Amino acid sequence: MEKLPITLVVITCNEEKNVARCLSAADFCAELLIVDSGSTDNTISIAESLGAKILKRDWTGYGDQKNYGSEHACNDWVLCIDADEVVTPELRDSILKAFTALSDEEGFEINRHGIYAGKMINHSGWYPEWRIFLYRKSKAVWAGLEPHTIVHFKGKKLGRLEGDLLHYTYADIREHLRKNISSAYASAQAMKTAGKSAGLAKLLLRPLFACFRRYIIQLGFLDGFYGFVIAVLSGVYTFLKYAFLCELYRQEAKPRQ
Q1: Which domains does the chain have, with CATH numbers?
Q2: pLDDT tens, residue by residue, 53-91
Q3: Distances (CA, A) of 82 to 165, 206, 251
Q4: In whole angstroms, what is the distance from residue 156 CA to residue 145 CA?
Q5: Residue 129 burial by CB count (10 A; 0-12/13-18/19+): exposed, middle or buried?
Q6: 128, 163 Cβ separation under 8 angstroms
Q7: What is the chain's mean pLDDT, rounded?
Q8: Which of 57, 70, 58, 52 has its CA nearest to residue 9?
Q9: 93 CB contacts (<8 Å, ≥6 apart)?
Q10: Global pTM value
């Protein structure tokens, strides 16, 4: 099969359980590029066996790592996804058609579909979730507060592709909770750098609203047991984010001994 002039960019750190599935589903890309930040498992050897080029770089944040990968892409077009995300056959066909049509789009939104413990999540704010993953590297940049960075599109025309990008989020509740803690702390650090405020009102009210939004407004109750778990842990994540932020400010205010 003739490859498309696209560079797949994937950031990794100990992703041996995901990386082969991710790269194999995107084998239509002319270049496979891994930006690795210190994997100690078999991530690199697996990626190399599938033809990927490896760039080793200390961790500098999600957005910065992805921008670094995009800048080093050999192709003008970049498909930038995470190691736990997989291009479906329908999305693959849609990308092939878009490049065959020679349209004037400079970026494409793709609908990401979350999977929790093997179950497709069809609501809860996880689906539909249209985001830009495929773009001309000169027309887009990853930006926003860590760790939830998104593509800021600078081009003239943005299209949408049929077919989903599967996102294998968490294997179980324990993994969800563990990642919540690290993500909430990273978010708190980014919020502090941006000068975001913290206080008791936010600690009390925002976690409750986050849970309500996921479960009621975003119809999480239709996702069954895991819809309820996602809603509750969304509240936990929000609480931790603001609790960490409060703590960071308190630590800064402590007089030096």
Answers
A1: 4-170 (3.90.550.10), 173-253 (no CATH)
A2: 999 999 999 999 999 999 999 999 999 999 999 999 999
A3: 10, 28, 34
A4: 24
A5: middle
A6: no
A7: 95
A8: 70
A9: 162, 163
A10: 0.92
